[in-house]
Amino acid sequence: MKVMRLLSSLKHDESERGIFHLGRALVKNEHTSIIVASASENNDLVRRLKRDGNIYHQLYMNKKSWLSLLQVSALRHLIEKYEPDVIHVHSRTPAW
């Protein structure tokens, strides 16, 4: 199974910690975990996700910003590329 998770950011807070646990569990059980968020590739949390076997893509989907709508084409490309079985949206901005 392929699971794509869309987040507006990656920070050291409670809501983001589940990202690591779920990603690790998916990879451990031979599923594909794809994470799309605004954090840069050299962010410590992104490196940790990649080290655990998650696929990471950076798209600017900052919270409560209409500029996030400019990423629709890039996000569509990622969805078409990976053809995920599940798309889990972690906040309303990526859901737009």
Bin the strand percentage. 15-25%
What is the CA-based Rg, rounded? 12 Å
Distance between the termini: 24 Å
User: Can you identify the CATH class?
Assistant: Alpha Beta
For the largest beta-sheet, the strand count, sense and barrel status come to: 4 strands, parallel
CATH topology: Rossmann fold
Residue-averaged pLDDT, rounded? Answer: 85
Number of helices: 4
Number of strands: 4
* Oligomer state of the chains in this structure: single chain
List key phrases describing it.
single chain, 4 strands, 4 helices, 96 residues, alpha/beta, Rossmann fold
Describe the secondary-structure layout:
Layout: E1 2-6, H1 14-28, E2 32-37, H2 44-51, E3 55-58, H3 72-82, E4 86-89, H4 92-95
Parallel strand pairs: 1-2, 1-4, 2-3
Structure description:
- There is one protein chain.
- The radius of gyration is 12 Å and the shape is globular.
- It has 4 helices and 4 strands.
- Strand 2, helix 2 (44-51) and strand 3 form a beta-alpha-beta unit.
- It starts with a strand and ends with a helix.
- It has a 4-stranded parallel sheet with strand order 3-2-1-4.
- It has one domain (2-95): 3-Layer(aba) Sandwich (Rossmann fold), CATH 3.40.50.
- With 96 residues, it is an alpha/beta fold.
